[in-house]
Amino acid sequence: MLPQVVMVDGVPRCVIRPTDQKALDRFVRNSRKWLQAGNAEGKCTYRPADATETAVWKDAFELHKAAGADDESFFGIPLIATAPAPAIVE
Q1: What is the pLDDT of residues 54-78, one digit of tens each?
Q2: Stated pTM of the model
């Protein structure tokens, strides 16, 4: 399955790559409390990730693999307060 963005009331919360629809539905159901962040009335939805969100997921996945972790144990990354990395000044 392609990376998906999980949103609460239209605000992106995380980008994940579930193995199938069942895994996506299970994630949304089981992580509802974290996703809603105190807004118990918030509506959780999802959509395919755009190019920028997919790039964030891929960067996090590459970092995960660089640490020696297996591919199957990586699921996703929060999008909360995701900002561009500062330029490195030498």
Answers
A1: 999 999 999 999 999 888 888 899 9
A2: 0.80
By the 10 Å C-beta count (0-12 exposed, 13-18 middle, 19+ buried), 42 is classed as middle
Output the 3-class SS for the chain.
Answer: CCCEEEEECCEEEEEECCCCHHHHHHHHHHCHHHHHCCCCCCCEEEEECCHHHHHHHHHHHHHHHHCCCCHHHCCEEECCCCCCCCCCCC
- Give the tens place of pLDDT for each residue, 8-18: 999 999 999 99
